[in-house]
UniProtKB/TrEMBL annotation:
It comes from Brevundimonas goettingensis. GO terms for biological process: diaminopimelate biosynthetic process. GO terms for molecular function: metal ion binding; N-acetyldiaminopimelate deacetylase activity. Keywords: Hydrolase, Manganese, Metal-binding, Signal. Residues 1-22 form the signal peptide. Coiled coil: none annotated. The lineage of its organism: Bacteria, Pseudomonadati, Pseudomonadota, Alphaproteobacteria, Caulobacterales. This is Amidohydrolase.
Length: 444
């Protein structure tokens, strides 16, 4: 996931809000000792914590070892810890007097990839996935950074209890990579069994951003994501007698091409939208016309309106293309939207993001802020913690993970070659998150 910044509208908000920012300025920056304390904690404890997590990744929804370790670490710091929330999720609570409630979230699952980073602590882990197949596992998206930084942030905020007032909720979330973990925790009573937050914070390490930098969008951070499956039906026959059957490969190929008209001719060209056919399987032999083709899609959008337009358009294009090619009514494609791997867009609350941005700039220096444009349409299920109906104000930011000289050649996320520079990634994440939390929990 690359660094993300505000949309044009949000940038106008930033300019217009400078006077308001002065009136609602962040509290005094933490003592300069904060950075030194974090660096010392990394050398003494967090480096080993990160190494352990990196060597022992676990797949989505199966993070039993990681969950137990997070519970142990947070309990050891004095937090009230509950496990098994939404599956393997961990919730840690620290009550520190009157004031707002702030939730800090870190995701903890890995990906089914064989690590080829060349790092000395490269993962060799394997795990039987939910589909019953054994797979290699690696942290190819930096979730090991996130959970290590959560532990570091937990320590800093515990040590600085005299500097803030309110309630702190820390969560280690399962299954972000399959975008169902956040929803599972919410559905398991996260906001009824535990204090409901006024604010929610999270960050993502970014291999395509220089270490030591932080990006805090004032608006859209991550796109919505929906998984869609299309089954194209046909009538099998001999490949030399195509007129005796209905060729689903021809129909599927036409659907793939026609789906791109949704982006090019249906959506406003200034709006973010992606329809990608990531998997297509059909046929068993060169001279046999099969009776079925299976397709898997990912659909991305930056607004609820465009999301609906794309999803409804997939239904229409699939059916219309098949009808145009003579597929009979009883064999029209079956289109199924995933009810598991789906999430709305993650959109930061503008005024709260401005408070966080101002606090980070004041505490860490204005040059730490990175304002490069969005470079893709990655998704994040953090959105479920900050849905409009929840009333929770969310801020999701990014932290650089690669030496500046190596950013242009760094492997992308979800690559077997993915790697980040652990120490600056973790320590910058801890510092930025601690500063953000202190700004929202400041004593009045």
């Amino acid at each position: 996931m690359r660094a993300l910044i505000p949309t044009t509208a949000a940038l106008l908000l930033l300019a217009a809000g400078s006077a308001a920012s002065a009136q609602t300025a962040a509290p005094a920056a933490p003592d300069s000792a904060l950075k030194q304390s974090i660096l010392a904690d990394y050398d003494a404890r967090l480096a080993a914590v990160f190494d352990d997590f990196h060597r022992n990744p676990e797949l989505s929804g199966m993070e039993t070892r990681t969950s137990a370790r997070m519970a142990e670490l947070l309990t050891g710091l004095g937090y009230e810890v509950t496990t098994g929330v939404g599956g393997t999720g961990v919730v840690a609570v620290l009550r520190n007097g009157e004031g707002p409630t702030v939730l800090i979230r870190a995701d903890m699952d890995g990906l089914p990839l064989q690590e080829a980073s060349g790092l000395p602590n490269a993962s060799t882990a394997r795990q039987v996935d939910s589909d019953g197949k054994e797979k290699p596992v690696m942290h190819a998206c930096g979730h090991d950074v996130h959970i290590t930084a959560l532990v570091g942030t937990a320590r800093q905020l515990m040590d600085r209890k005299d500097d803030w007032s309110g309630t702190l909720i820390l969560i280690a979330q399962p299954a972000e990579e399959r975008i169902f973990g956040a929803r599972a925790m919410v559905n398991d009573g996260l906001y009824s069994r535990f204090p409901k937050p006024d604010y929610a914070l999270a960050f993502h390490v970014d291999a395509q951003m220089a270490e030591g930098q932080v990006s805090v969008p004032l608006g859209i951070h991550s796109s919505s994501s929906d998984g869609v499956e299309i089954v194209v039906h046909g009538v099998g026959t001999h490949g030399a007698y195509p007129h005796l059957g209905v060729d689903p490969i021809l129909v599927a190929s036409s659907i793939v091409m026609n789906l791109q008209s949704l982006r090019s001719r249906t959506v406003n060209p200034l709006e973010g939208a992606v329809v990608t056919v990531g998997s297509i399987h059909g046929g068993i032999k060169n001279n046999i016309i099969s009776d079925r083709v299976d397709m898997q899609l990912t659909v991305r959008a930056d607004s609820p309106e465009v999301r609906t337009l794309l999803l409804d358009g997939i239904d229409r294009v699939s059916r219309g293309t098949a009808e145009a090619l003579g597929v009979p009514e009883n064999l029209l494609p079956t289109v199924t939207r995933s009810t598991l791997e789906t999430t709305p867009a993650t959109i930061n609350d503008g005024p709260t993001a401005q408070r966080v941005r101002d606090a980070i700039a004041a505490a860490m220096g204005p040059n730490v802020l990175n304002d490069e444009p969005r470079a893709g349409m990655g998704a994040e299920d953090f959105a479920y913690f900050v849905t409009p109906e929840s009333g929770v104000k969310g801020v999701y930011f990014d932290v650089g993970g690669t030496p500046a000289a190596e950013v242009e050649t760094a492997a992308g996320h979800h690559s077997p070659l993915f790697k980040i520079d652990a120490k600056p990634s973790v320590t910058t994440g801890v510092e930025a998150m601690t500063v953000a939390a202190l700004a929202l929990l400041a004593k009045t």
